[in-house]
Structure formats: C-alpha cells, structure tokens
Amino acid sequence: GGAMSFLKRFPPPAEGVRHRQPDTEAVLAGRTLGAGTLYIAESRLSWLENSGLGFSLDYPTISLHAVSRDLSAYPCEHLYVMVNAKFEEEGTKEAPMAEGEEEEDSDDDVEPIAEFRFVPSDKSALEAMFSAMCECQALHPDPDDEDSDNDYEGEEYDVEARGL
After folding, report:
1. Contact 149, 157 (CB under 8 A)
2. Which residues on adjacent β-strands are paired with residue 120?
3. What segment(s) does the record annotate as region Disordered (predicted)?
4. How many helices (H) and strands (E) does the chain have?
5. Domain-located, residue 41
6. CATH number, position 14
7. Mean pLDDT per 10-residue run, the chain (164 residues)?
C-alpha cells in the first residue's frame, strides 16, 4: 500500500524547463499517483507531488505521447505517455509464482510497457504540454532512426547502420 516505491524525493528541475503544469494528476496503469506538477524539461519529463516526491522519465524511454480526448478510454482529457520501462510497485508481480513456468525469465523477451496519463486541471494546457514534449523529444534522437545518422561524429555508427 501507500506510495509507489519508485517515487523519489528530488528537487524540481531548474534548467531547460519548456513547460510547467501545476495541479496535474499522474495516473500509472489506471492507478492515480495523486496531484502534482508536471515539468517538461529538456533533459527529462518530471512529475512531483506537492510533498516533493515524484518520478522522472527519460525521453529515449518514451515511445509515444499524445493528447487523449477519447473519453471512453479515460474520463478526462489528458496527455498520454507510453514508456518502455517497468514501473510496477515491488511485490505486485510476486504472487502468481505457483503456476510453475511463470518465472522471471519470461519477462525478458517481453518489452516492458508503462502507461502514464497526466491529467491537468486546466484542459486548455494540453496542446502546450504536447508541443513542449515534442520539442524536448526532438532533442533526444533515437539512435535506431536513420534520420539521426548525422548527429553522430563517430565512424563506427555509420558502419553499423550500413551493415543492417
């Protein structure tokens, strides 16, 4: 129970903040984490509740972000962020070990996915939140994308890219 274990105490980002959205509820996998402030900074996306506990997401781990207005999927308009990372509370997955085959190893081939929803009390801020995220995401090109070839100085990357 209580707060999720990945919440940590850290100071709000001071540098490169493109957008700051107070009074924004964070929801992970359908469970609310409470209300806090969303910081869309150039280095990472951070959410901090008023007590100073929060979490950060690195842009390279964010596979999708979108403004969701589909009220059948979720009752409030929000910024939807899909992350390639595990954010479960420790201990939630331990229970069904009795089934035998379901050991830790089976998780490895499955790409971990976490779904965050950031629900601002001010819905008119969603477009600004989204475009700030696009700007910051663009500062972190995916090394797998061909377009980002020219960001690399090193020859070895080009050789790898050709070899694929």
Report:
1. yes
2. 24
3. 91-112, 137-164
4. 2, 8
5. yes
6. 2.30.29.30
7. 75 96 96 96 96 95 96 95 80 46 55 94 98 97 60 49 53
What is the per-residue pLDDT for 94?
43
| Amino acid letter, residue 75 | P
Overall domain count for the chain: 1
The answer to whether the CB of 48 falls within 8 A of the CB of 33 is: no
| Side chain identity at residue 20, one-letter code | R
| In the block, residue with structure tokens 């600004």 | 128
- The full length of the chain comes to 164
Residue 30 lies in a domain: yes
Torsion on CA atoms 75, 18, 13, 151, rounded to nearest 10: 110
Domain that holds residue 68: 8-91+112-139
Sign of CA dihedral 15, 79, 87, 144: negative
Global pTM exceeds 0.90? no
